[in-house]
Design goal:
Elements lengths: L7 H12 L3 H17 L4 H10 L3 H12 L4 H11 L2 H13 L4 H9 L3 H11 L2 H5 L7 H26 L12 H13 L3 H16 L7 H24 L1
Helix pairs in contact: 1-10, 2-4, 2-10, 2-11, 3-10, 4-5, 6-8, 6-13, 8-10, 8-11, 12-13
Length: 241
């Protein structure tokens, strides 16, 4: 993790630098989305626009896969909504660190609050000792923005690469490995905090207990239980402070 910066520019660049290694998993993930979008019949311009506006990799990939399978609007909306419920936990975790910022800053940071940006930014915010020892104003939101911007730019470029060159990528490359690899990498980061540990433990147990449910509803139940456990852990930690 980068050393505490003393300027907005220093914090922003530190966020960019610390986020950059995660692009190794994000790049093939974005290419998979671009390829899948074209295969589902989504126009290239619309697929690229979705990456800029929606900016939710897992949800975007699920949406185009369901479109290719002929799913209707309601199942697609429900599935993508449930998939993104994890951002509720992210928001609860980050709220205490950004509540003092103006609304325009909170809206901007909410837009870039993705899995990868959260994993890097929350660890930076948790370095309380280093921040408290610095008399300068708290500029860590610039670090958050740098991490989020780096991820956003990488996602746009990788989507464009998938749309432009997807047809030329040899099938034996098997880029699908990037999706679970990315989330495994994030899990190792997030398990350093208690809320992430609680969410992962409960969600993992829930997935096992409800594995027999039809239509993969067991995963939905596991997500909901994990979110509840994480939110509960966040509240307990806040009360203990």
């Amino acid at each position: 993790m980068a050393r505490v910066g003393h300027t907005a520019r220093g914090e922003f660049l530190a966020g960019c630098r610390d986020e950059a290694p995660l692009l190794l998993g994000v790049a093939p993930f974005g290419m998979i989305y671009g390829i899948a979008a074209l295969a589902a019949g989504v126009p290239a311009w619309l697929a690229q626009l979705a990456s800029a506006v929606v900016f939710a990799g897992a949800a975007q990939l699920v949406i185009v896969q369901m479109l290719a399978a002929g799913a209707g609007f309601l199942p697609i909306a429900l599935t993508s909504g449930l998939l993104n419920l994890r951002h509720v936990l992210y928001s609860a975790s980050m709220a205490e660190y950004v509540r003092h910022l103006p609304r325009r800053w909170r809206l901007l940071l909410a837009y870039v609050l993705t899995d990868e940006a959260y994993a890097v930014a929350v660890l930076r915010y948790q370095r309380r000792e280093a921040a408290a020892a610095t008399p300068a104003p708290d500029l860590r939101h610039w670090y958050f923005l740098g991490a989020g911007f780096t991820l956003w730019a990488g996602w746009q470029l990788s989507t464009a690469a998938g749309l432009l060159f997807g047809a030329t990528i040899p099938p034996e490359w098997e880029l699908d490995f990037a999706v679970p690899l990315t989330f495994i990498a994030l899990l190792t980061l997030l398990l350093r905090e208690r809320a992430g540990q609680a969410a992962a433990l409960v969600a993992g147990l829930g997935a096992l207990v409800f594995a027999a449910l039809p239509y993969k509803l067991g995963l939905v139940a596991a997500i909901m239980l994990g979110l509840a456990a994480g939110a509960w852990a966040v509240r307990r930690l806040e009360r203990a402070r």
